């Protein structure tokens, strides 16, 4: 990397590296706890994330496979396979989009809803320093 590119980006100071280290540590702790919570409920972390993203779209209670792929940062075909596994487990159902028959809406089943709400409550208790997610001020 050229020295001019480094200057534009700014070489991180020790304080920056410490902050980045703490962030990554806290993130990894949360991800580990998330894995434990999901696995204890008999689903994978990805399945939990899919359920969360299905209900996480503002103003509606469903998502398309493409939207879920974006939220999961995954390939659409892999996301479609994940939706199929969740469908087989009785957690979601697919419905054709009435406005665009090329699109498929993914909806939670009552079982998926119960699972999501239970796991989301457990996850919320572990956000701790991530209080900003819920609009809480740091105290």
From TrEMBL:
Residues 1-139 form the HTH marR-type domain. Pfam families: MarR_2. Transmembrane segments: none annotated. It comes from the Bacteria. GO terms for biological process: response to stress. GO terms for molecular function: DNA-binding transcription factor activity. InterPro entries: HTH_MarR-typ, MarR/SlyA-like, WH-like_DNA-bd_sf, WH_DNA-bd_sf. This is Transcriptional regulator, MarR family. It comes from Paraburkholderia phymatum (strain DSM 17167 / CIP 108236 / LMG 21445 / STM815) (Burkholderia phymatum).
């Amino acid at each position: 990397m050229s020295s001019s590119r480094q200057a534009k980006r700014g070489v991180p100071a020790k304080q920056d590296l410490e902050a980045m280290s703490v962030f990554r540590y806290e993130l990894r702790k949360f991800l580990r706890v998330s894995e434990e919570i999901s696995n204890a409920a008999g689903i994978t972390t990805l399945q939990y994330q899919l359920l969360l993203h299905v209900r996480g779209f503002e103003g509606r209670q469903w998502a398309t496979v493409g939207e879920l792929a974006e939220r999961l940062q995954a390939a659409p075909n892999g996301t479609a396979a994940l939706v199929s596994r969740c469908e087989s487990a009785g957690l979601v159902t697919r419905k054709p989009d009435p406005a665009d028959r090329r699109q498929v809406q993914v909806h939670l089943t009552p079982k998926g809803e119960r699972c999501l709400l239970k796991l989301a409550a457990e996850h919320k208790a572990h956000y701790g320093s991530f209080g900003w997610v819920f609009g809480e001020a740091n105290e």
